[in-house]
Amino acid sequence: MTSKAIIFDLDGTLIDSAPDIAAAVNRYLEPRGRGPLSAERVARFIGNGPRKLMADILADQKLPVDEATLAEAHATYLENYNRHPAALTEFYANVREDLALLAERGFRLGICTNKPHALTQKILSLLQIDHMFEAAIGADAVKDCKPHPDHLAAVWQAMGISPRQVIYVGDSDVDRMTAQRAGVPFFAVNWGTGADVAVEPAFRLHRLADIVAHTEATHDG
Ligand SMILES: O=C(O)COP(=O)(O)O
Ligand SMILES: [Mg+2]
Q1: Which of 83, 99, 132 is where one domain is finished?
Q2: In whole angstroms, what is the distance from residue 143 CA to residue 141 CA?
Q3: What is the CATH classification number for the domain harbouring 115?
Q4: Are residues 142 and 214 in the same domain?
Q5: Domain final position from 83, 108, 128
Q6: Inter-CA distances, 54 with 6, 47, 133, Å
Q7: 63-121 confidence digits (pLDDT tens)
């Protein structure tokens, strides 16, 4: 097979960042008489970037969603999250080991996330996996972020590879649409909100190491 590069979504796919994101959301909500919201509840709103996250949270909490409130909510949330970017964040089961295994098997690795770019680099470094990825591109480092296919293209271009070598792995419909529009195969993880994403069984991952067998089955012969 020619496909030897895997680009991953970050939140909900490699890391369970929902507890830190929920803590940052709750530090915004509590002085306004709302929350605290559980990490599970907040997780449902993650995947479209922080501005949309806060717009959805304000609406969910029946707070005003006018432009000025949203701008302030977005800025305060980011300030809170930047202060504690990986205090409660954990890898999903087997992720750390399976990334190493995939790298060992010759897969080149990248990340395409709607998390802000600088925060992405900071979190990868705090979790000590930054060296595993040839490129990790956050939403504000591109003109059009996911679900726009240019965001994913920016990652494979930064890796210096062709889209024919790429598969994308994620946990949301945003990720599924992005891959579809970019014309690359999409695999959904079976954890977090990924379990709700409709894909054929051959494109469902129970752990990241399944990619080895799946790509052999879907690309060979
Ligand atoms: O919405 C975000 O902030 C990031 O989400 P993603 O890593 O799943 O793209
Ligand atoms: Mg995600």
Answers
A1: 83
A2: 7
A3: 3.40.50.1000
A4: yes
A5: 83
A6: 30, 12, 29
A7: 999 999 999 999 999 999 999 999 999 999 999 999 999 999 999 999 999 999 999 99
Rounded to an integer, what distance in angstroms lies between the CA atom of residue 154 and that of residue 78? 24
Residue 220 Cα to ligand 1 midpoint, Å, equals 32
Question: Do 131 and 46 have their domain in common?
Answer: no
- 29-67 per-position pLDDT tens digit: 999 999 899 999 999 999 999 999 999 999 999 999 999
- Quote the pLDDT of residue 1: 47
Q: Could you tell me if 107 and 211 are in contact, meaning their C-beta atoms sit under 8 angstroms apart?
A: yes
CB contact at 8 A, 198 and 181: no
Interval between CA 221 and ligand 2 midpoint (Å)? 32
Catalytic status, residue 171:
no
Asked whether the beta carbons of 187 and 208 are under 8 A apart, the reply is no
Report residues whose beta carbon is within 6 angstroms of any ligand 1 atom.
9-12, 46-50, 113-115
Q: Is the ipTM of this complex over 0.95?
A: yes
Of the chain, the end-to-end C-alpha distance in Å amounts to 9
Range of the structural domain that residue 60 is part of: 18-83
User: The whole model's pTM is what?
Assistant: 0.95
